[in-house]
Automatic annotation (TrEMBL):
InterPro entries: HATPase_C_sf, HATPase_dom, sCache_2, Sensor_HK_TwoCompSys, Sig_transdc_His_kin_sub3_dim/P, Sig_transdc_His_kinase_MctS. It is a multi-pass membrane protein. The chain crosses the membrane at residues 7-27, 203-226. This is Histidine kinase. It is found in: Cell membrane. GO terms for cellular component: plasma membrane. Residues 42-133 form the Single Cache domain. Signal peptide: none annotated. Gene3D superfamilies: 1.20.5.1930, Histidine kinase-like ATPase, C-terminal domain (3.30.565.10), PAS domain (3.30.450.20).
Amino acid sequence: MGLKSKIILLAVAPLIVATAIIIYLSLQSARELAAEELAIYEYNLVNAKEKSLKSHVKIALSAISPVLENDQLDDAIAQAEVKRILAGLRYDDDGYFFAYEMSGVNLVHPTQPDFIGKNLWSFQDRSGNYLIQGLINAAQAGGGFHRYIWEKPPLMRLEDKLSYAVAIDRWDWMMGTGLYLDDIYDELAKTKATMNDNIQGSFFIVIIVAVITVIFVILLGLVINLHEHKLADSRLNAVAQRFMRLQVSERRGFSRELHDGINQSLVSCKFRIELAGNKLRRNDDHEVVQEELLKASDLISQTINEVRQISHNLRPTLLDDLGLDTAIRSLIDQFSERTGINVEYHSDVTDEVADEVETSIYRLTQESLTNIEKHAEASVVSLILLQKNQKIEFECRDNGKGISDNPEPGIGFINMRERLELIGGDFHIASQKDQGTWVYAAFPI
């Protein structure tokens, strides 16, 4: 996997993970909220059923209360009349009333008359619920609800049923009615299905938005990466071209120095030696011959100095002989001796650095001091070399007159900037009028 792919993956992976977590948490939150809403909805529906059952029982009690309150009627006649009234009461499509003795004997059951007269105390629904006992207990407690499973007419299918029962104290009876809960379950199932559809729809929309976002981020990253790559390539090509021109210029200068300086000196030296030889063959005066040889010796010494200067320009010998710190101190001493400007120098570079970095630091120091000497009119210079974060940081400050608010570096600094870019370094220069100049560079170790 290439570096670009790794960078894009590093940028996209956290986005995908965060999106997945957010989607999961949102989905869980939506499901929990839906479950809470369903529970509240079910409670409200059941509560409405309970209120309806109480209302129906209240109506039935109102219907039989004249009989119950009539003390003139015989109990047998009154009981028969109450049974008749309860058996004839209906509401909705399947609503009816039932009555039992507290012992569990059925007295009224309009939908299943074969239960009448039977003791159903031990009767259980399919879940093992003693439903008659539960209704009697609820009635004896002053009236209450009981849930169980019962056959629903007309198909007589087993359905959940909620009943409300009260006691008829005059004869120690239990009377009540019930409503089936299948319509509640149907309504809850429809509501749950609607909620699930909404949640799934929202989930798919979020997934689509997330996918589109990730694709957009990837495409944007590729576009930016491609743009930056083109900019970097063009910048690198420009730097390489400038550096090639710099090399050509340096080689031309080196060639001119060899041709115009060293070559001419060696030719002159050759002529002097040949002239001395001719004079010896003519038996000229020895002093005349010696004078020619002395001139040839002076030319050789001059040539040696020029070779040393060229060698120093290519790679200062001090760097190889004494190291970077001593070489820079030598530059500073020479600068202070020439200009009388005090230089405050500090270095904490301890690691061994590459030759090209040493040479670049030395040349930058040389260029900075040369510019200060020519242009700054400074009295104090601060030169610092710090080693940190796998870099050597170079800072040179002076208290001179400065360049301008927006300094344009000269050819020397331009060459240094290009050298630094080629070795992966960084270069900045800042200056303000009458506030000195600041040169900063960072060299990779």
